[in-house]
Amino acid sequence: MKKALVIRALMMAVTLRQPPPGLTHHSARGSQYASHAYQKLLQIAVGFLADLIVLNRNPLEDIAVFERYRSEMPIVMKDGKFLRQQLR
Predict the structure, then answer these.
(1) Max Cα separation, the chain?
(2) What is the pLDDT of residues 36-79, one digit of tens each?
């Protein structure tokens, strides 16, 4: 898959869906998602808020970790406030 395709898909999704602030972006492991052009679209800039998610497993080894968020995400922080804090 070409990086231009995933860039166009992301831009189309944002334009058509107009997601609210706080949207979580998740992608597969393909090299097109790691490209400079794609990462630049997702960069943190002035006015953007960075959030924190702590995982029990490495998503590079097991991408389905995000589907099992109740057991695999003990800490979720949004806008500086804990939304989930369940350390084992």
Answers:
(1) 42
(2) 777 777 765 556 555 677 888 887 788 888 788 788 888 877 76
Claim to verify: residue 68 and residue 35 sit in the same structural domain:
no
- Check whether residue 3 and residue 36 sit in a common domain: yes
Instruction: Give phi and psi for 86, each to the nearest 5.
Output: -135, 75
Number of structural domains in the chain = 2
What would the two tokens of residue 69 be?
């968020």
CA distances from 18 to 5, 14, 33, 62, 75 (A): 19, 5, 21, 29, 27
Q: Which domain holds residue 33?
A: 1-45
Segment holding 14, helix H or strand E? helix 3-17
Average pLDDT taken over every residue of the chain = 76
Question: Are 38 and 62 within one domain?
Answer: no
